[in-house]
């Protein structure tokens, strides 16, 4: 888990006069879950979409699994998994049919039910995307990233808007995908999520990387600098109460 699978160097993205990504550099190591964290508008999605070949960069270089984004975007597309926009989910097709369609577009042969099983959606194989709950939609969206059996997947705020159970179940799903050998780059606004999921995180602010490390090291450094929480931390929080009262199983009918 030590070799870089993604190398971003001096990445810049300008929208007219506005610099959204301002000379960002980082590496993502093979097999890790790497988090891009930072305030709204910091440039996380822009950075993610450039790596996904979905957005042009202004300057800098991106190398993914030895492939240069400028020279081999087509080859990069084959080895990465991206979340498709919901608009691409043809409304008349059910989940099984959508996976068949997408796998045809990728030129791969996969069994829809096998993929749906990975995200606990086999019982929804005949359902339409619009009829899924929020958590089920997110799980289906993650399933679509796996269609081409990619080495790396990119997830933009995968648990935003989900209830605590759905969120924790999605964490298990993401950890399972990593355990199967896939490198994951994700963005999130939930620091508890980053702490549970990410091997390393990069904090981005106003288009610049302001720190890259493991969550534990960031926390240790902060404590070592003399930081103390103002209030005594309770032994449990309201989310623990929620999970304790309502259980952990998939509950999204
Ligand atoms: N197509 C565009 N044209 C002009 N400006 C854009 C465009 N897309 C993004 N921006 C601007 O670039 C900046 C970075 O946006 P980006 O979506 O990358 O931020 P983010 O870190 O993902 O934010 P959030 O956490 O709110 O999703 C923002 O100021 C945004 O308004």
UniProtKB/TrEMBL annotation:
Instruction: Write the lineage as a comma-separated list.
Output: Bacteria, Pseudomonadati, Bacteroidota, Sphingobacteriia, Sphingobacteriales
Spell out the Gene3D superfamilies in the cross-references. P-loop containing nucleotide triphosphate hydrolases
PANTHER family per the UniProt record, alphabetical = ABC TRANSPORTER ATP-BINDING PROTEIN
Q: Where is the ABC transporter domain?
A: 6-231
Q: Where is the signal peptide?
A: none
Keywords from the named record: ATP-binding, Cell membrane, Membrane, Nodulation, Nucleotide-binding, Translocase, Transport
Any idea what this protein is called?
ATP-binding cassette domain-containing protein
According to its UniProt record, where is this protein mainly located?
A: membrane
């Amino acid at each position: 888990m030590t070799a870089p699978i993604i190398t971003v160097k001096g990445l810049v993205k300008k929208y007219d006069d506005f610099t959204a990504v301002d000379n960002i550099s980082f590496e993502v190591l093979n097999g890790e879950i790497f988090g891009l964290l930072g305030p709204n508008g910091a440039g996380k999605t822009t950075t993610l979409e450039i790596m996904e070949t979905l957005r042009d960069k202004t300057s800098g270089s991106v190398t993914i699994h030895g492939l240069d984004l400028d020279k081999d975007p087509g080859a990069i597309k084959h080895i990465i998994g991206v979340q498709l926009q919901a608009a691409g989910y043809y409304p008349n097709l059910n989940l099984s049919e959508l996976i068949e369609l997408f796998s045809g577009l990728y030129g791969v042969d996969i069994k829809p039910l096998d993929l749906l099983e990975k995200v606990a959606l086999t019982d929804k194989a005949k359902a339409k995307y619009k009829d899924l709950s929020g958590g089920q939609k997110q799980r289906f969206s993650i399933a679509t990233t796996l269609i081409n059996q990619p080495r790396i997947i990119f997830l933009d705020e995968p648990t935003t808007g989900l209830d605590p159970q759905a969120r924790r179940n999605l964490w298990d799903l993401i950890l399972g995908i990593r355990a199967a050998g896939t490198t994951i780059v994700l963005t999130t606004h939930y620091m508890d999520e980053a702490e549970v999921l990410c091997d390393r995180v990069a904090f981005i602010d106003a288009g610049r990387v302001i720190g890259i490390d493991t969550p534990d090291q960031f926390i240790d450094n902060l404590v070592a600098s003399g930081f103390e929480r103002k209030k005594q931390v309770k032994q449990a929080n309201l989310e623990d109460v929620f999970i304790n009262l309502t259980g952990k199983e998939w509950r999204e009918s």
